[in-house]
């Protein structure tokens, strides 16, 4: 039993760290807002990319038959997944406003305080860390706080100049903190779904419907209706590809984040995935040259913040849950099963990475391959018409960081397949 707990803990840590790599890279296209595009336009196009990407890599892993069977078995979770998507959509739109008003360097660490909100909700609603030793509780709490402190240090380290993005606009700060609250609350449906045994690949299907519908409503209501610049962007194919690509990168990162939340809980998984600040800094500093004019004090903040974030992640990753903590989690699973009439032992097995009676559902149908072909074709079609965005970039670092992205994907995918077969 202890070896199984330890293995799932290691798997959750791997997923959380891989999520950080991919979620950090997904923020790079948001810098297009500095080129004058509407925040609603950026958000809608990126979410359209998320929705399209959902039907590529994830569909190949399990197939639509499995996904819809899982959703129909737990119908009560569909509304929770849509709600989570709506919360994400509002948060993502707020982040674009924050980037526009105070810049990515300040906004990113502010909205990454969502890990503290997630830690609070996990403790209050799902009794996470109950039964944990004082040492493990301290590791998780101090690790989460350290990551937030490091994120703030890294954010301030990239501030330079006196342009409009360096100004501390109240509107930008409010938008960033609002995004943090939305994202921190969004993890409540995540955890509720996994305590009921839902697979992350199924959850994200309903999730993307909620986020696309919400962003579309926001755009129509607040950005000029059908005259919004968002719909004009769909005709600018050279730019649209990069926003769709950002959506694809986000889908991969979010799937790993959800597996981390499943196997570690939101109190451990979310702070680990928030190491995306470190990777966001890497893209900002190395690719976009955000540290080009930084003085030695700013560079010292970068070094100190990076070390603190690594130590925070290390603290959380070594806080392996005890038997008493797992007993508390099993009680939470029992409450969900009693409330919605689910099979307790089957749900518990799914939470541990094992699923039964789904072999036939996982068989790929011809339409699965057609869906993947159409979704991939959209990306290829946009890519062939893509142009280099109007941003100064170091392409050598683009290649280097892309290699790291692919390497982390291989490690994370292999680990999930080895231990759980993506269950």
Automatic annotation (TrEMBL):
Membrane topology per the record?
Multi-pass membrane protein
- Primary location: membrane
- The protein's superkingdom reads Bacteria
Compartment(s): Membrane
Task: Give UniProt keywords alphabetically.
Answer: Membrane, Transmembrane, Transmembrane helix
Q: Does the record bear Transferase in its keywords? A: no
Any one GO cellular component localisation term in the record: membrane
Enumerate the transmembrane spans.
7-25, 37-57, 77-99, 105-126, 138-158, 170-189, 201-222, 234-256, 300-320, 366-384, 396-417
User: Any idea which GO molecular function terms this record carries?
Assistant: carbohydrate transmembrane transporter activity
Q: Which InterPro entries match?
A: Sugar_transport
User: What is the residue range of the signal peptide feature?
Assistant: none
Per the record, the similarity remark reads: Belongs to the GRP transporter (TC 2.A.7.5) family.
Protein name per UniProt: Drug/metabolite transporter (DMT)-like permease
Species per Swiss-Prot/TrEMBL record: Granulicella mallensis
């Amino acid at each position: 039993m202890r070896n199984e707990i330890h293995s799932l803990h290691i798997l959750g840590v791997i997923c959380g760290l891989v999520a950080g790599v991919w979620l950090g890279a997904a923020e790079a296209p948001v810098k297009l807002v500095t080129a004058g595009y509407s925040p609603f336009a950026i958000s809608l196009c990126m979410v359209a990319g998320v929705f399209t990407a959902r039907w590529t890599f994830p569909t190949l892993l399990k197939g639509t038959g499995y996904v819809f069977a899982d959703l129909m078995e737990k119908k009560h979770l569909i509304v929770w997944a849509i709600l989570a998507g709506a919360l994400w959509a509002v948060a993502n739109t707020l982040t674009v406003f924050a980037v526009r008003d105070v810049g990515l360097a300040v906004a990113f660490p502010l909205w990454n305080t969502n890990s503290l909100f997630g830690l609070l909700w996990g403790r209050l609603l799902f009794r996470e860390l109950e039964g944990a030793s004082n040492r493990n509780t301290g590791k998780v709490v101090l690790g989460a706080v350290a990551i937030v402190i490091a994120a703030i240090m890294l954010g301030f380290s990239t501030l330079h100049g006196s342009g409009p993005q360096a100004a501390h606009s109240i509107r930008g700060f409010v938008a960033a903190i609002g995004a943090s609250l939305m994202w921190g609350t969004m993890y409540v449906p995540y955890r509720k779904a996994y305590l009921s045994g839902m697979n992350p690949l199924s959850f994200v299907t309903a999730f993307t419907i909620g986020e696309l519908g919400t962003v579309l409503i926001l755009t129509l209501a607040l950005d000029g209706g059908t005259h919004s610049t968002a719909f004009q962007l769909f005709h600018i194919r050279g730019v649209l590809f990069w926003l769709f690509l950002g959506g694809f990168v986000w889908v991969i990162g979010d799937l790993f984040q959800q597996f981390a939340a499943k196997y570690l809980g939101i109190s451990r998984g979310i702070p680990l995935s928030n190491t995306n600040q470190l990777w966001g800094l890497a893209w900002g500093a190395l690719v976009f040259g955000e540290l080009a004019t930084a003085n030695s004090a700013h560079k010292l903040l970068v070094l100190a913040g990076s070390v603190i974030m690594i130590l925070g992640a290390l603290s959380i990753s070594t806080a392996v849950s005890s038997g008493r903590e797992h007993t508390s989690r099993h009680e939470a699973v029992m409450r969900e099963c009693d409330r919605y009439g689910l099979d307790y032992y089957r749900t518990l097995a799914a939470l541990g990475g094992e699923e039964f009676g789904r072999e036939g559902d996982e068989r790929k149908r011809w339409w699965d391959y057609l869906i993947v072909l159409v979704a991939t074709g959209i990306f290829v079609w946009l890519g062939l018409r893509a142009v280099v965005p109007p941003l100064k970039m170091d392409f050598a670092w683009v290649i280097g960081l892309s290699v790291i992205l692919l390497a982390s994907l291989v490690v994370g995918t292999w680990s999930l397949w080895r231990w759980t077969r993506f269950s």
